[in-house]
Design goal:
- The protein has no helices and eleven strands.
- It is an all-beta fold.
- The strands form two sheets. Strands 2, 4, 5, 6, 9, 10 and 11 form a seven-stranded mixed sheet that branches.
- A hairpin with a 3-residue loop joins strand 7 and strand 8.
- It starts with a strand and ends with a strand.
Length: 118
């Protein structure tokens, strides 16, 4: 079992930046991948970025060049961050942190709202 807490969402103007944070505690040894997903109203949830156990990042095409995923590891927690720049109104969504464990089980955070609007 893992516990996931997200923060950092909010209202930002187009062209602005946000940094989302996700802190994970619990059975950390079994984590394979950490991900950020998003879901806009009326749309399917989609992967934004991921970082592997080895620290390799991957990004969806629509955020490449605008997003950076990073990770901090302590003895009791793992934190993953998503820095997003040059935000667009179409980036408005509920952003979820997800943890993938060996065996494929995925655990989700509660989500943090990002709204891009002038």
């Amino acid at each position: 079992q893992v516990q996931i807490v997200e923060s950092g969402g909010g209202l930002v103007q187009p062209g602005g930046s946000l940094r989302l944070s996700c802190t994970v505690s619990g059975r950390l040894f079994n984590i394979y991948n950490m991900e950020w997903h998003r879901q806009a109203p009326g749309k399917l949830r989609e992967l934004v970025a991921e970082i592997t156990r080895g620290g390799d990042p991957n990004y969806a095409d629509y955020v490449k060049g605008r997003a950076t995923i990073s990770r901090d590891i302590t003895q009791n927690t793992v934190s993953v961050y998503l820095q997003m720049n040059s935000l667009k109104p179409e980036d408005t969504a509920l952003y979820y942190c997800a943890v993938v464990q060996y065996g494929g089980a995925r655990s989700w955070g509660q989500g943090t709202q990002v709204t891009v609007s002038s």
